Amino acid sequence: MSQADTGVLVLEDGRSFAGQRFGARGDAGGEVVFNTAMTGYQEILGDPSYAGQIVVMTYPMIGNYGITPEDFESSRVYLSALVVKEPSRVASNWRHERTLDAFLADQRIPGLWGLDTRALVRHLRDRGAMRGIIADASTSEASLVERARAVPSMAGQDLASAVSTRSRYEWTRPRMRLDDRGVPARPARFRVVVYDFGVKRNILRSLVDVGCRVTVVPASTSAAEVLALRPDGVVLSNGPGDPEPLREAVKNVRALLGQVPIFGICLGHQLLALAGGARTFKLKFGHHGANHPVLDQATGRVEITSQNHGFAVDPASLPAALEQTHRNLNDGTCAGLRFRDLPAFSVQYHPEAAPGPHDAHYLFERFVDLMREGARPCLGATT
């Protein structure tokens, strides 16, 4: 990468951070958020939940193990730009195929490095996530502030429809091991339909691991179409943006309640809450990272979790039919809930977390238990 290419990140409040360009050299705008994970930058790049966002990594060096296609969480990059303290100039992992710099350039994703990421993260922590623009340093900062303020707010945006699959498909691959033999999956006993609001592939892999035959459907699929597939369970996936504009999705979830066991993850958690009559709100700077402590209120067990969301469920709005089951220990927000009298539950974090942590993977087993108790084995499945 050439150190002669200077760039700047300008926020909507006028604060600017100068650095060096890497990856693609184009401009990029979006909501600026920070991620506290030490590893997993490749999974972050491929997470559809980052659509419309500029991601700042707090760990000081990013890219040291390069880019490996098998580790991606989707088919392409969804974030708008990547900001790091320093990108590794070499990739040392034996599986890598290219460097981070080369990959971002190929994907036309701008990167910025060499700025004081600690100062930037402290500013976002104090002021909250805000819109920003990455451009050449020669561009007028006044014009960049105007452009940053013109970036659409995350609140009110339906981004899930933009990242969702356009057609139904089957998923059969389990999680991968480094010896390439894969994690042995159980025989497929249950048919599961996954609503794709921006689904991560490791959710699908994890379902296969615990004995599910997985069908992924577009976000716009009606409840009647889902029930026509005769599922034993339905998963509401993660995804980007504000859950409140997804009124049709909420309507479909409400129609599925009581018909089939439901497991909601991240955005799916928020949609399940809305379907049950609760409310959601925008967080100040969101939860993005792989080290968020969550308390299981039933067992007293603390899990370290991977999280990526900018909105949360208001626990004060939960009706009598809903019970909070998990609490984020950083800020006390609702991290999980269940219906008291229906087979439906959800969490505001990622139990499929790739590359980790894996504390919450038991939730896939809990979902299987719900299907075992309340649903017939899927027609034609191996027993």
Walkthrough of the structure:
- This protein is α/β, with parallel strands linked by helices and 383 residues long.
- It is 22% helix and 31% strand.
- It has helices at 41-45, 100-107, 117-127, 141-150, 160-163, 201-209, 223-228, 247-256, 267-275, 362-374, and strands at residues 6-11, 16-23, 28-35, 53-57, 61-62, 81-84, 86-87, 110-113, 130-136, 169-171, 190-196, 212-218, 233-236, 262-265, 280-296, 302-313, 322-328, 334-339, 344-347.
- The strands form 3 sheets. It has a 10-stranded mixed sheet, with helices on both faces.
- β17 and β18 (334-339) form a beta hairpin.
- The chain starts with 5 loop residues before the first strand and ends in a 9-residue tail after the last helix.
Brief write-up:
This protein is α/β, with parallel strands linked by helices. The protein has helices at residues 41-45, 100-107, 117-127, 141-150, 160-163, 201-209, 223-228, 247-256, 267-275, 362-374, and strands spanning 6-11, 16-23, 28-35, 53-57, 61-62, 81-84, 86-87, 110-113, 130-136, 169-171, 190-196, 212-218, 233-236, 262-265, 280-296, 302-313, 322-328, 334-339, 344-347.
Which key terms come to mind for this protein?
10-stranded mixed sheet, 7-stranded mixed barrel, 10 helices, single chain, disordered C terminus, alpha/beta
Order of helices and strands: EEEHEEEEHEHEHHEEHEHEHEHEEEEEH
Strand order of the largest sheet: 10-12-11-13-14-19-18-17-15-16
Helix/strand structural class: alpha/beta
**Number of helical segments?**
10
Shape: globular
The major beta sheet can be summarized as: 10 strands, mixed
What is Rg? 21 Å
Give the N-terminus to C-terminus distance in angstroms: 55 Å
- Helical content class: 10-25%
Low-pLDDT residue intervals, each spanning 5 or more residues: 375-383
Residue share in β-strands: 25-35%
Number of strands: 19
**How confident is the prediction overall: mean pLDDT?**
93
